[in-house]
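Q: Can someone sanity-check these two? First one:
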Amino acid sequence: MVNEDVENRVINLAVRTTRITAGDLYKALRAYMRHIQNKKQLRQAAKDSVTKGKQSVKELVGQGQGVSSMEIGDSGIRDFKRIANKYGVDFAIVKDKNENPPKYTVFFKAKDADAITSVLKEYSDRLNKRKKEAGKERPSILNKLKKFKEIVANTPLKHREKRKEQER
């Protein structure tokens, strides 16, 4: 008898907790709709935001502002990226793997023409500076060391007289 009473109470409690009221269902649906709306807004914001700097060719062309291209040698691509980012140019770099050494083609937005010219000017200045530095022969450190050794060997040493006196 006592067990039956306990069983009935447990069953009644289980039934009461599993019943969903219309208000609970309404609240759950509203929360779900808000969640979906937030996701849509985030997707739209990500779609609307324009990426800056380095991007894929597909993204660059997808912006619909026209694209121009230029070939660049394999040296100094990192410098080129830094300079282009400094000037705020949108660009995409594609490596031509068929050639040895590989050549890179850089795609730009057509509207960035003024910025492109200044980027290319600074980039070419850096390349020329590097070539000039590479053309100069650096003096050998060993030769410098030998030269300084000779100078030190030729300088006369001062002889000091050392006397020890006892103090009382």
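And here is the second, same format, sequence then tokens:
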Amino acid sequence: MADIDQVEDEDSEEESRHPRQRRSREESHDDNESEDDAVDAAVSAEDQLAKKLVRYALACEFSRTPIRRDGIKERVLGDQGRAFRKVFEMAQLQLRTVWGMELQELAVREKFTMAEKRQGKFGGDFEASGVFVLSTTLPATYRTPAIIAPSKAPSIETEASYIGFYTMIITIILASGGELSEQKLRRHLNRLNAEANVASEKTEDVLKRMQAQGYVVRKVQKNAATQAQDGSEDITWLVGPRGLEEVGIGGAAGLVRAVYGEQADADLEKKITATFGISSATDGEGDVDMSQAPEAGPSY
């Protein structure tokens, strides 16, 4: 009889252990599901923020508004500021794979003239600015006007005139050693028949817009020699960070080639090399290979 009671007790203990094990497995499974749900929610939230950043970048670039790091944190991330790097990388992936673009950080705006650089006031190293622009990732063969046409807002003609004008001014500045005096700028504007107007806009308004959008920098310095007499100032025009990114030396050289057209030859390439400080591509026989020449105009 005692043996029977002992067996029944063991069976009772075994039955009580099984429910506990089942509950333990169920609780563990629930915990794993909760963790998976939390991870999925975090990924989903980051993905939504990345899409929001893409929309914000496209909207800013349409109006050529600087895409600032602080603006991204304020208008996109909100209280998720610590996720900046992750969201930024996800947005970059979407921009590259879907839109054929990427966010490029601009250098700090140029503040020094050539004379100041020679005096050692400029170190020459790239400084992060926390300001970005959208730049195309398309191969050069797809950057033709037929594929990347000027924006229709406000109109194709107005946008094309503006692009052509700032590309020309940037090219002139770069061809002049990276800076241009006010007097020389006015002389070039007169030669371009743009001393008063650019298309339907006043030249002064266009130049101010180019400054605001970062295509050029207008540096004003006091003239020590004449300051005491008439208070005159020296004005120097430099290429801005957006101008360097969108046009740069490659675009400037491409514009020169486009202007010369079929008359372009090896002598022109030598002049371009000397003027802009770039290397000309050559074929196996040592002749200039024009097929490798950069396209004219902006890079976007």
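A (reply): Looked at the second one. The chain is about 55% helix and 15% strand. The mean pLDDT is 80.
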